[in-house]
Amino acid sequence: MSRVRPDRGIRVDAGDRCLKGQFSAMASPCEVLVDSDDIVAAEHLTSLVADEAWRIEDKFSRYSPGNIIDRINTADGEGVPVDDETAQLIDFSVTLNDLSDRKFDITSGVLRRVWHFDGSSKVPTREAVIDVMKHVGWHRVNWKSPILTMTPGMEIDFGGIGKEYAVDRCAGLLRNSTDAACLINFGGDLVATAKPTRRDAWKVGIEALNAQKRESDRLVNLITGGLATSGDARRFLVHNGIRFSHILDPTTGWPVPDAPRSITVAADSCTQAGMLSTLGMLKGAQAEAFLDAQGVQFWCNRGDDATLFGQP
């Protein structure tokens, strides 16, 4: 049993004791699992989620010409007024910047000009990193809501929080639209809106460190709430036998030393889970201690076949 909407890139199929809607957004495969037999309703719910995901992607992707991010990044030193939704995301990113001692920074995306995490062995020169660091740092930004002003050459990028924000927005739409339990999964960032009726919990696989492995490293039973993972399974480079993670420290321009290979966090929302998994990665050697102090359940893998678990 399946229904396909090729005009919108949406497909709904019968899954394991649920209906599964599928589409693509934010460079990720996206799923909506619906604890129901009503395939028409599942298609409607998937369409709601897809429309909201595509709206957020169009509005906040740095790849979309003419959107608010593009206008900010091409303002050449001029102040740009932003709408309430954009202002809220900026304020949230400022909070993360403060909580992380400036290690979470939405201006750090320009480091991609010198770092290319494609599995190759090319490491930028120190001179190249120093040069691009002139355009990194929230302390260089003038933010007086609703006006954002940056020096020429600087950019912002919501890539570190955008997908989790989209998942939570879509979860809110589903809670307002159906009593059926649903699971939203955007490329491994997910939310369960309620406990499913046909099983004890939603079973979620944590991605293997080796991106080529077909199976997950571990299955997690999720009843409600969010789950998010940060790690370097797909984005890294190896130079002189040293693996460089794509998790960059915006205060130095170099990969965070002693960062775990991956961190998965379970929390009340996907945004909270994503925030904590990212901040944990930025803590490097202190990741486990930081996450323990947050009172959340987490899985921290340093690639030595020993996965550490934190309990709330």
Textual characterization of the structure:
With about 300 residues, the protein is an alpha+beta fold. The longest helix is centred in the first third of the chain and has 22 residues, at about 40-60. Among the domains are: about 1-60 and about 160-180, no CATH class; about 70-150, T-fold, CATH 1.10.3980. It is built from seven helices and 19 strands. Strand 18 (about 295-300) and strand 19 (about 305-310) form a beta hairpin. The model has no long low-confidence stretch (mean pLDDT about 90). Helix 6 (about 270-280) runs antiparallel to helix 7. The protein is globular. The chain has a ten-stranded antiparallel sheet with strand order 1-2-3-4-8-9-12-17-18-19, covered by helices on one side. A three-stranded antiparallel sheet has the order 5-7-6, with no helix packed on it.
